Sequence to fold (573 residues):
Amino acid sequence: MRDLKRDIAAQLKQTIMTVYPAAEGLPEDLSGLLEVPPDPQMGDYAFPCFKLSRSLRKAPPVIAQSLEAAFDAPETARAECAGGYLNFFLNRGNFAQSTLKAVLDAKGRWGAGTEGEGKTICLDYSSINIAKRFHIGHLSTTVLGNSLRKIFDFLGYKTVSINHLGDWGTQFGKMIAAYKHWGDKETVEKGGVDEMTRLYVRFNQEAAENPALEAEGRAWFKKIEDGDEEALTIFKWFKDVTLKDAMRVYDILGVRFDSYAGESFYADKTAAVVEELEQKGLLRDSEGAKIVDLEEYGMPPMLILKSDGATLYHTRDLAAALYRMNTYHFDQCLYVVAYQQDLHFRQLFKVLELMGYDWAATRMKHVAFGMVSYEGQALSTRKGVMIYLDELLTRAQEKALEIINEKSPNLPDKEEVARQVGVGAVVYSTLQNGRIKDIDFWWDRALNFDGETGPYVQYTCARCGSVLRRSGDLQNAAPDYAALDNDEAQQLLLLLSRFPEAVRDAANKYEPYLINRAVTDLAKAYNKFYYEHRVLDESDPAGTKARLELTQAVQEVIRTGLSLLGIEAPERM
Ligand code: ARG
Fold:
């Protein structure tokens, strides 16, 4: 594939070496130094000449001027100096032709790569807790993790997606005790997670009056730990009921996991880790508990065993990290978890490092994200400040269906399109900003389908499809790329040519919103192009063919970008 940015970089390098043979310390490839000017009027790429002024002992404008005079590559671009910058204006005809060829030859995989071949990435995301209803507090991790998995797949990595279930702890003993006292099979089957929560709440209320219940709860948990058949059967059933609810949400969102090995999976693997910590001289006694002291590293100690010998979330995460390394030999292990757990992960990585696992510092990464609140308030089930995911997705789909019924009542597959659009709205708004930013959830915002939203981008993609369907014989003309010599088309071509960079940026920074921005920019630019130019023009088949190729390229790249976010693009809407 011909990459005009690379070409400019190569020509520029040659020019510099001719004009200033003494120039030193230039990188092999200058592409990294080329910038995108803030205003397209200033060119498609710019080279800031102050990067050379030090080694050449010349003022940037002087350098810019001499480079302008010597830059001679009309096939690629023309150069113009402006102050200390050398601005490049691509040869539009060539640029259009090579960009469209590259995009269309990629057949829906423009931006895909092979750089990940032979490398494995573990992604720990969603990681819901058993017997808790799936609420918007777990939306970011689910949607971010799913998108990151798709992005890394697209770049050729082998990905392992892991739902590290929160399925271990004394609360499950209490739940069994409560179930034995006041529950019955049918009510739990019907009421699902809500019913389990009710039982758990009742347990805590009654235990306040009747402390003997606490002991019962502990005894049941001990039975789980010891593998007692009755305890395990009930516990497993609680898990199945929770997962059945979660699975409905995963199905609607199109999220899947390679592994559901959660905390309970590691329960029998913690003893070996404790033993290893002991052998490596890292364990300290602290009031009967076992800890790893991290004071030297400015962190509170990591609690490994409670005074009653019970393991902790920490301990199971240590076992999980080692298990994942031994099983998957990962090059990276990502934890897509809220930033509140920052300390937990810093401690985890540090303790692994102290155990002698050097990879912990370089291969493990906490991909943190911001907090979710609801209309300005912290989420709280108790205070009723809560949005459940199934409810959110249902309402988004209903709203989408309402709009479809109003605007395109004859659309085939309305229900399916409503699902795609409803999910599109929710996922898009979750991935609209950098992940560390807190999200305040408002119903009217989440269900807004105008302006910069998922449905707007999906609609633009469908609009491209409709143009292509109406094109008929014009598809068969030979293209004349001169028809794309206008600012609107040029802007689209630039965005298309930069899409692969956006994908890599998103992967390197673990920031799907960069792809969100790329598809949104494309959609906006296409709509601008569409209003300013007549795409289908019978009297100009060659120009039409060029505009159709552009339209198809935009459609394919938007579809690719949306799919990397976890959003489908309906054919029609
Ligand atoms: N279940 C935990 C929670 O809901 C998240 C687990 C994240 N993964 C992990 N390996 N610690 O907060």
Q: What stands out?
A: Residues 124, 127, 129, 164, 166, 317, 320, 335, 337 surround arginine (CB under 6 Å).
